[in-house]
Each structure stands twice: as structure tokens, then as C-alpha cells.
UniProtKB/TrEMBL annotation:
The lineage of its organism: Eukaryota, Metazoa, Chordata, Craniata, Vertebrata. Pfam families: ALIX_LYPXL_bnd (PF13949), BRO1 (PF03097). Its main location: cytoplasm. It comes from Sagittarius serpentarius (Secretary bird). Residues 414-444, 521-548 form a coiled coil. This is PTN23 phosphatase.
């Protein structure tokens, strides 16, 4: 693969400068640079001098010395103007990145990392609202493209140098990762609308490269498997490389001949490798070919990086031409002093964070919430929801009376129904007994034991109706019993809610009298919170002091040899707040020890409070449930009354019908008896035979 033709690379156009009221000679040399490394050097120097200038003269947005600065936006060709020296810097930095991308796309294959560095600095240090071509999305796209192409250059060199197969595979996999990031940006609808027609060309090339370099990665993973004599793995890696290369070929339609040539060359290499590996494995090694997804994925090795831009590096920018306005040494010393302040803050924050971690873990293990460590206040008054129910019952004084009356009426109707059905049942039993006596007198054989005697049609109908009513009554009786239980359960609670508030207040249980233990625990928890708040406040004060601490004026007049001493003197202003912080951190151990002791004493109280709270909540819920059940009980009671009133009417009619049927049956029995007696011969004179007695 070291002889594979090179793939083309994407490069960016340079922006064109417009109006800027600056020295004409300087302006001309900065915007019309040659397209070579000398041009890059000129842009860097100009960028650095602009940095020196803007730190001394108020030429920023809305500042006194601001002047109009115009540049052409790349994609639309429109002229964009801002009165801000930083806009000039941003455009110069963009051109620096674009020029590096142009040089990187040439045969020498260098400079891509410099381009990525320029775009990264532009993204991180300048506003994104200057123009579309310097928006956050476009800069991210440029950065990933440049890093991908830089990694691609490294891949070319690695293959030329015959580096180890596994390393080449990882380098190639990282090329794929960078291009995937770039492709995601290109597929973004907002980015696509900004780029216009060029978006499609770039996207096609990048998508093709993703598959192409994935094929290269798996080709070298196959070569590594070959070196390790893993012949089954070798086959699957070469097969995967072939599949991905075929995808790249499909996506390469319309690409220049250089791309087609590279793809044909690579196909010859991978195709030959695959055919040879498959043939050897089929006829010689006979190793199982694993599925690709069972093998470890190739992790990219990012060996390129965006080279940092330092606008104050004298080796790049040359001497400061504005040094007489403000000594550069003052800026350098100020930077060193900022480093000292940053170190001081890091040291303090390391101690604070360590203590905070211990404190957080300790408090989590305790599970103590200062807001709910005791709820004694809740027991000192009737809960609002109960007050609401009491108030509602106070305007309905007959609530309990109505419920009791409803229960009584229901019981009365129930009893009447039961009495009527019992009387009907008794009549039927008596009739059956008389019928049996008649059969015995007539000398007829009684039916088998347990079999009822046949009834007259009238009584049979009564018996059938009675059985139906008894069945309905038995089913309703269970519901009626449950309703009475519910009424008896809730009626006491309703009486309580209708009574004096003192009785309602006394209904829930009272908490244990351990106020001293609770107060001590709450006091220490308040101490913990006070310690936290003070620590946070001191940290904030320290940060604000550091942020506002600018000694540039002092540094301008200071002797360079005295800088260290001056720094020490200036940093003493932080000693007092550091002492306060140290005291706060040192107090934590004692506070947590006191909290541990208090928590031990609180354990028994905590359990008792939890039990009381549970009982309290249960009582309140029960009382509320009784109030809310009232309407339902009244409704069901009325339904029960309606049901039994209807059943009582039917039972009364059936009772009358039963009486009439029994009388008719008795009269019929008497007629049968008289006929039988007439058929018999006259009796011998004996004592008179007693007649059938009626009940």
C-alpha cells in the first residue's frame, strides 16, 4: 500500500479584505500575502501585532478608537463590516487557517495541523457572530476536516515507513473517526444551508473517504492477523476490507481520476490479499472464520493535534512595535502573577473539595434532613384537611342522625321481609305435614324418605316464588351485613368530626417528650449548614478577589528584579481569607463528631417518632375516609331501602297467596277424607273416631 496514489484533499478559500482605516502599506502586505509559507509567516506577524495594538488602544466594539473594518464573507460573497479590531484579527486568523489548508493539500502534505490550530483558536477566543464563515458550526467542520487530513498525511507516511500493521490500522481508524465527525457536521441542515453547493461535493468526498480508510484499517488488521498466524481472522478482516472498499467505489462516482486510480490500486491489493487468504484457509489451514462483530473493534489512535496559536510569541510575531505604549514586560509579569493566583486557588480548592466530599458522604450515611428531623409542630394543631371536614360537618349537623335513621329504616324493612318469608315457609311446612297425615290415614305408601310430597298447583307456585325470594334475600343479606359493618365503622368517626375540636385534636396520638434530644440534634445540624454556607461564601469571596486583582499598573513601574518580591507582597492580601478557610475546614472534624454523638441519642427517639407519625397519618386518613364515605353510605342505604321495600311488597303478596292456597289445600283434604269415610261399612259401635285436627 506504500505506493498507493494519494487521495485529493479539501482546502479553503481566503477571505478578501475591504475597508480598514489602517496604514496602507501594512494593510496591503497583510491581505495580499503570497500563497506559500512566507505568506503564513506574514499573517502570523500581523495577527500578533494586532493583538499588541488592541491591548493598548481602545479599538474594540463600541470603544473610542473603533473604526469600520470590512471583509468579504466566503460563501455568499457579501461584504461584512464591523467596528471592532477583533474582527480584523478573526479574519486574519481565518485566512491563516485557510492558507495552511491550501498548502496542506499540495504535494508536500504538510501544514494541516497548523490549519486546525488556527481554526481552533478562532473558535475558542473570538465571537462567532462576525460572519457565517466563522460560525461555530463551520469552524468545527473545518477543524475536523483539517485534523482528518493531517491524520491522513500521517497515515501515508506510516505506510511509506512500513510501520507495524496494528499501528497503521489504528491511525487509519482515527482518520475515519475525524471524517465521521466532519460528515455529521456536513449533514446538519443548518451547516448545509450555510455552505451551499460546496456542501454536496465535500460530503461526497468525505463519505467516500470514510469507507476507503475503514477498508485500509481492516486491511492492516488482516495483515496483523497474518503475522500472528490467525488465518481465520485474516480472512474476515480482508473480506470486510473488500466490502468497505466496494462501498467506497460506489460513492466515488464523479470523483477525479486520481481517486479512481487510488481505488483501483487498493482493489488490486485487497482483492489479491483476500483471494490468497481464503484459498490458503480453505485448502491448508481450515480455521473457522469468526464473525466480524465477535472481534475487537479497531480503536483509533489520534496522533495529530491542533497546533496552538500564541499571539504573543516573539519568535512568530517579531518585536512588539507598540512596546513604547505599554512595556511588554508588564504584560508578561501580569501573566506570571495570574499563574501564581491560579496556583493559590487550585491549592485552596483541593482542600475544600476533599473536605466537602467527606462531609457529603457522612451526611448521606446519616440520612438526616434538618427540615424533617422532627415534626413536632404537626402535632400541635389539627391538620388542615381535618379542619376542612369538621367545618363541612358543622353546617350539616344532622349527618350522624340521618345515617343512624337510615340504618334503622333499612333494618326495619329487612326484618319485615325476613318475617314474611319465614311465615310463608312455615305455612308450606305445615301444609306438607297435614298432607302426609292424610296419606297415612288413607293407607297410601309414603314417598321415599327425603322426597317431598307433590303440591297442589297453587302451593307449588308459592313454593317456587318463595325459594326465589329467599335466594335473593340471602344474597342481599350479605351486602346488608357488610353495609351495616361499614356504617358502624364510620359512624363513630363522623360523631368525632361533628363534635368539639378538642376531641378531634385528642384523637391522633401524641409524640414522645424528648425535646432536649431533638433540639440538640437540630442545633448541630444547623451548625453543619452554617459551616457549609460560610465555606461557600469564603470560596466565592476568594474567587472574586482573584478575578478583580489586577496589578498591571504596579508592574509597569516595578523593577524586573523585584518581581518575585512584589508577587509575594501582593499575594499576602489573601492570607486572611485563607486563615478563615483553614479554620472552617479544621472545625469540620469536631462538628461531625458532635453530630455522631447526637445521632446515637436520637436513634430511639427517631424510631418512636416514626411510629407516632405513622399512627398519626393513619388516624387522619381514617377520619378523612369516614367523611368521604358518608355520601356513599347514604346512597347505598337508600338503595338497600328501595330494594327491601320492593321485596317486602312482593313477599306480602306472596304471603296472602300462600294463606289462600293452604286453605284451599286443607279444604280439599277434608273432602277427600269425607269421601273415604262414606265408602267404608258402618262402623261397629265403638268409641267415636277422632277427626283430623287443624292447626
Amino acid at each position: 500500500m506504500e505506493a498507493v496514489p494519494r487521495m485529493p484533499m479539501i482546502w479553503l478559500d481566503l477571505k478578501e479584505a475591504g475597508e480598514f482605516a489602517f496604514n496602507a502599506a501594512v494593510k496591503k502586505s497583510a491581505v495580499n500575502v503570497p500563497r506559500d509559507f512566507e505568506g503564513c509567516s506574514t499573517l502570523r506577524k500581523y495577527f500578533g501585532q494586532l493583538h499588541y495594538l488592541q491591548s493598548r488602544i481602545p479599538m474594540g466594539a463600541e470603544q473610542e478608537a473603533a473604526v469600520p473594518i470590512a471583509w468579504t464573507e466566503i460563501f455568499s460573497g457579501k461584504t461584512v463590516t464591523h467596528e471592532d479590531i477583533k474582527y480584523e484579527q478573526a479574519c486574519i486568523l481565518y485566512n491563516l487557517g485557510a492558507l495552511h489548508s491550501m498548502l496542506g493539500a499540495m504535494d508536500k502534505r504538510v501544514s494541516e495541523e497548523c490549519a486546525a490550530g488556527a481554526f481552533t483558536y478562532l473558535r475558542d477566543h473570538f465571537p462567532h457572530s462576525y460572519s457565517v464563515d466563522m460560525s461555530h458550526q463551520i469552524l468545527n467542520l473545518n477543524i475536523n476536516l483539517m485534523l482528518g487530513q493531517a491524520q491522513e498525511c500521517l497515515l501515508e507516511k506510516s505506510m511509506l515507513d512500513n510501520r507495524k500493521s496494528f499501528l497503521v490500522a489504528r491511525i487509519s481508524a482515527q482518520v475515519v473517526d475525524y471524517y465521521k465527525e466532519a460528515c455529521r457536521a456536513l449533514e446538519n441542515s443548518e451547516t448545509a444551508s450555510l455552505l451551499g453547493k460546496i456542501q454536496k461535493d465535500w460530503k461526497k468526498l468525505v463519505q467516500m473517504k470514510i469507507y476507503y480508510f475503514a477498508a485500509v484499517a481492516h486491511l492492516h488488521m488482516g495483515k496483523q492477523a497474518e503475522e500472528q498466524q490467525k488465518f481465520g481472522e485474516r480472512v474476515i478482516y480482508f473480506q470486510s476490507a473488500l466490502d468497505k472498499l466496494n462501498e467506497a467505489i460506489k460513492l466515488a462516482k464523479g470523483q477525479p481520476e486520481t481517486v479512481q486510480e487510488a481505488l483501483r490500486f487498493t482493489m488490486d491489493v485487497i482483492g489479491g490479499k483476500y483471494n490468497s487468504a481464503k484459498k490458503d484457509n480453505d485448502f491448508i489451514y481450515h480455521e473457522a472464520v469468526p464473525a466480524l462483530d465477535t472481534l475487537q473493534s479497531v480503536k483509533g489512535a489520534p496522533l495529530v493535534k491542533a497546533l496552538p496559536v500564541n499571539p504573543t510569541d516573539p519568535a512568530v510575531t517579531g518585536p512588539d512595535i507598540f512596546a513604547k505604549l505599554v512595556p511588554m514586560a508588564a504584560h508578561e509579569a501580569s501573566s506570571l502573577y495570574s499563574g501564581e493566583k491560579a496556583k493559590l486557588l487550585r491549592d485552596v480548592m483541593a482542600k475544600i473539595e476533599a473536605k466537602n466530599e467527606v462531609l457529603d458522604q457522612f451526611m448521606d450515611s446519616m440520612q438526616l434532613d434538618p427540615e424533617t428531623v422532627d415534626n413536632l409542630d404537626m402535632y400541635s394543631h389539627i391538620p388542615p384537611i381535618l379542619m376542612e371536614k369538621c367545618a363541612a360537618l358543622s353546617v350539616r349537623p344532622d349527618t350522624v342522625k340521618n345515617l343512624v335513621q337510615s340504618m334503622q329504616v333499612l333494618s326495619g324493612v329487612f326484618t319485615d321481609v325476613e318475617a314474611s318469608l319465614k311465615e310463608i315457609r312455615d305455612l308450606l311446612e305445615e301444609d306438607e305435614a297435614q298432607e302426609q297425615k292424610l296419606q297415612e290415614l288413607l293407607g297410601k305408601v309414603p314417598p321415599p324418605q327425603g322426597s317431598p310430597l307433590p303440591l297442589s298447583p297453587g302451593l307449588a307456585e308459592v313454593s317456587k316464588e318463595c325459594s326465589k325470594y329467599m335466594e335473593v334475600h340471602e344474597k342481599a343479606s350479605f351486602t346488608n351485613t357488610e353495609l351495616h359493618k361499614a356504617m358502624n365503622l364510620h359512624i363513630g368517626n363522623l360523631r368525632l368530626l361533628s363534635g368539639p375540636l378538642e376531641q378531634v385534636r385528642a384523637a391522633p396520638p401524641c409524640p414522645p417528650d424528648d425535646k432536649q434530644v431533638l433540639q440538640n440534634l437540630k442545633r448541630i445540624l444547623a451548625k453543619v449548614q452554617e459551616m457549609r454556607d460560610q465555606r461557600t461564601s469564603l470560596e466565592q469571596q476568594l474567587r472574586e478577589m482573584i478575578q478583580k486583582d489586577d496589578i498591571t499598573t504596579s508592574l509597569v513601574t516595578a523593577d524586573r528584579s523585584e518581581m518575585k518580591k512584589l508577587f509575594e507582597e501582593q499575594l499576602k492580601k489573601y492570607d486572611q481569607i485563607k486563615v478563615y478557610l483553614e479554620q472552617n475546614l479544621a472545625a469540620q472534624e469536631n462538628v461531625l463528631k458532635a453530630l455522631t454523638d447526637a445521632n446515637v441519642k436520637y436513634a430511639a427517639v427517631r424510631k418512636a417518632l416514626a411510629e407516632v407519625e405513622h399512627k398519626w397519618n393513619t388516624t387522619v386518613q381514617t377520619l378523612v375516609a369516614s367523611y368521604e364515605a358518608y355520601e356513599d353510605l347514604m346512597k347505598k342505604s337508600q338503595e338497600g331501602k328501595d330494594f327491601y321495600t320492593d321485596l317486602e311488597g312482593k313477599a306480602a303478596k306472596l304471603l296472602e297467596k300462600a294463606r289462600a292456597a293452604c286453605q284451599a289445600a286443607e279444604a280439599n283434604r277434608q273432602q277427600i277424607l269425607e269421601k273415604e269415610m262414606k265408602k267404608q261399612p258402618p262402623p261397629r259401635p265403638t268409641a267415636p273416631k277422632p277427626a283430623l285436627q287443624k292447626k
